[in-house]
Amino acid sequence: MLAILRKEFNSFLNSPVAYVVIGVFLVATGLFVWVIPDSSVLDYGYADLQTLFSMAPWIFLFLIPALTMRTFAEEKKAGTIELLLTRPLTDGQIIGGKYLACLLLALLALVPTLLYYYSVYQLGAPVGNIDSAATVGSYLGLALLAAVFAAIGIFASAITRDQIIAFLVAVVGCFLVYSGFDSLASVFDGAPAYYIGQLGIAAHYRDISKGLIDSRDLTYFLSLVAAMLLGTKLVLQSRNW
């Protein structure tokens, strides 16, 4: 699995994909956090990074599928998938290596945003007047969100040989899981609205972003990742049916 991880990650770094994805993410979040008047921290008047953590999921919703769309679809189109599957590797190792490479690159895009935290920390009155616990929780929430989106993208790439179709399926899947249940919950009132909302990512992401690390939220995210990766494994195993 580590060999697959190194190969996939190096292939990202040797192509413009990684740099375009990270660049677009940083430019987009930077504009929302510092430049656009309606969302700028400088105009907002409060020392927090709520703008970053509210906009990043929507940017990830498009950028992570752009990373994952080639993982299996390109192998199928080029005819190298059979060669890969006949090597002394299990399906789980192949999936795990490709998945971790995509996730690692997505998390790498978050690292430069720590400068945003440092800047807001210094701009606070007094210095350090920022809710660090909520910020740590929000970064954890973004990492878990990226993990789910990457798993959905890997699954979408496994079910087709066309990268564009894999991208579109992944975007729609990520959107439905992230926002779809919230939209459906708004149709109902009371307990039904609450339970339907809990089926989506947004409710759990909001809880973690408040700095409340609950085992139920962690279990939810990890279960989604496991379900998507298991689905990917079943798709690969279907060649033997």
UniProtKB/TrEMBL annotation:
User: Could you tell me the membrane topology recorded for this protein?
Assistant: Multi-pass membrane protein
Question: Sorted alphabetically, which keywords does the UniProt record give?
Answer: Cell membrane, Membrane, Transmembrane, Transmembrane helix
Q: What is its main location?
A: membrane
Cross-referenced InterPro entries, in alphabetical order? ABC-2_transporter_component, ABC2_memb-like, Motility-assoc_ABC_perm_GldF
Q: Which superkingdom does the taxonomy of this entry point to?
A: Bacteria
From the Swiss-Prot or TrEMBL record, state where the protein is found. Cell membrane
Q: Where are the transmembrane segments?
A: 12-35, 55-73, 94-118, 138-157, 164-181, 218-236
What PANTHER family has UniProt attached to this entry? MEMBRANE COMPONENT OF ABC TRANSPORTER YHHJ-RELATED (PTHR30294), MULTIDRUG ABC TRANSPORTER PERMEASE YBHS-RELATED (PTHR30294:SF29)
List the protein's name. Gliding motility-associated ABC transporter permease subunit GldF
Source organism: Hymenobacter algoricola
